[in-house]
Hints:
By secondary structure, this protein is of the alpha+beta class. It has a domain at 10-70. Helices cover 27% and strands 31% of the residues. Strand 3 and strand 4 form a beta hairpin. The protein is globular, with a radius of gyration of 16 Å.
Amino acid sequence: MDPHETEILPPAGHAEVRIVAASPETARAVAEVLRHCFAGAEQRSYPAPGGGTRLHLTVDTETAAGPARSWLATSRPSTGAGPHVEEH
């Protein structure tokens, strides 16, 4: 069985973000930037292979803040828009 088949998807409007870094400080710095752009839930951290850190957090893409709000508004596809020709 494919392990991805059992993965539970986050609720609509949310995204799971996984950060892998050599140090916990680096992973937390990236998570902090994401929290400035999106509302988010509590982060979870785990050891990564090779002594690094793996950090997981859930962000709410419908509750964007600051620069993400304007970027999200302009990046959403218009109704009926399909993939670019080169994406087929």
